[in-house]
Design brief:
three-stranded antiparallel β-sheet, coiled coil, elongated, single chain, membrane, alpha+beta, transmembrane helix, transmembrane
């Protein structure tokens, strides 16, 4: 009887091989859970370095005595929307004042009030002051005998520098950087947040959603955001789906590598154990 036959027969008879595999699987599961929790808390600690506990008030454009401007903006927007179904090229130019007035006046944009305000537009980027709520470290709060898991509130208060692009049926912001006074924002956080899908919530809006879907280009020119539709031109997505999923892809790749290394280690331990038992069986 050769050595491979002895090892095979001994492994089949021994319950310890199965126990080793079960223990290894449990260790892998515990390791992945622990690694995920550790990564999550490290991320929370990094976020806490450049975020605040309280929001910073963001100016909302006053609508007092602005009826004429609001009506003029509404007429321009409606004219553009109607021309989107035409056969001629059409565009809508929106200045920083136009965007801030729209946020203050139009009901669909109410969630941006007090959290996002455009300060300037150049030929490369939009500059906006922001105060975005973020989730901090999770914590257990007790109410009587029961408890619920909540998270500390954190706020990203600073300036967002970004360029608008098309992504399928929506306008997204490709982040160049986020500036927080006196603090450094981790590049990994900016990369994870970009592209910022600021208009995702409007995809199902009966007016805004279909209008965005008809755009073929979004540009910055002369201190304005240019929304353009050119018949016969296919919209180019400068932001790809791979870029949208890159942050989660990096996390899963890291977890996959860690799991593979741990499984390889566990497999070696099991193999060593099985071979040791086989040798012991041959040489009692």
């Amino acid at each position: 009887m050769n050595d491979s036959k002895v090892i095979k027969d001994d492994s089949a008879r021994s319950p310890f091989a199965g126990c080793f595999i079960f223990i290894a699987a449990m260790l892998v599961m515990v390791f992945l859970i622990g690694f995920s929790v550790l990564t999550l808390f490290r991320q929370f600690n990094e976020i806490a370095k450049f975020t605040g506990e309280q929001p910073v008030p963001i100016e909302i454009t006053s609508l007092e005595n602005r009826e004429a401007e609001i009506n003029a903006l509404s007429e321009r927007v409606e004219h553009f929307r109607q021309q989107l179904d035409g056969t001629e090229e059409t565009s809508l130019a929106l200045s920083a004042d136009d965007l801030n007035l729209a946020i203050a006046a139009y009901e669909p944009f109410k969630e941006l009030r007090g959290t996002f305000r455009v300060t300037s537009i150049d030929d490369k980027n939009i500059n906006a002051t922001i105060s975005f709520p973020l989730n901090g470290k999770p914590r257990l709060t007790r109410e009587g005998e029961s408890g619920t898991i909540t998270s500390d509130s954190r706020y990203l208060n600073g300036t967002m520098v970004a360029a608008p692009h098309l992504l399928k049926r929506e306008i997204v912001l490709s982040l160049d950087r986020i500036e927080v006074p006196g603090k450094k924002v981790a590049p990994e956080f900016t990369n994870q947040m970009s592209p910022y899908r600021i208009t995702e919530r409007y995809l199902k809006d009966p007016l805004i959603g279909p209008a965005m879907a008809k755009l073929t280009r979004v540009e910055l020119s002369g201190g304005r955001v240019m929304l353009i539709r050119k018949p016969g031109e296919n919209p180019v997505d400068l932001i790809t789906n791979d870029q949208v999923d890159s942050a989660s892809g990096r996390l899963f790749k890291t977890l996959g590598i860690a799991a593979a290394c741990f499984l390889a280690f566990a497999g070696i331990i099991v193999l060593i154990g099985v071979r040791a038992k086989a040798r012991k069986a041959r040489n009692p």
